[in-house]
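Much of what follows relies on a compact textual record of a protein's fold. Think of the row as the fold of the chain written in a discrete alphabet. An example makes this concrete, so a full record is given next.


***
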Amino acid sequence: MDIDITIKDERWQSCGFDVNTALNLVAGHIYNIIEIPEYATEMSVVLCDDAFIQRLNKEYRGKDKATNVLSFPQLADGVMDPSSPDMAMESSLGDIIVSYDTIAYEAEDQEKTLEDHFKHMCVHGMLHLLGYDHIDNDEAEEMESLEVEILSLMGIKNPYSETEIMA
């Protein structure tokens, strides 16, 4: 998968781990667990601060506050149509936006490493791009189960064993 990374906050460049490596690791594990159409070849990730993500959260979700991660799927249901004449435009899964401020605060508060929490938020965001959600209990259980499975492949413990606030 081709991951286009845009860094809007320079703290991501000195965060203590390579974000490109982390994103590719997450994407690789998701591809091993979930059947993803071969034509889904790219996604964009924007690494930003709270001010940037708050503006997007207000504009697109009507919530005037920062959050840890936002996902903007290319298609509403997360499913691409291989017969579409616009297939070239549909090769992108969508966009994920991650706030340094919020995930750094959450990582410290939850006694996790920034890298592990970043990977979790990227798994969470990528699952949203693939059509998973946590609006109702059944969907939340399915999504959380996938997150736990994918994170365990990276040696990251279950983030839901204690209460965690979701985006």
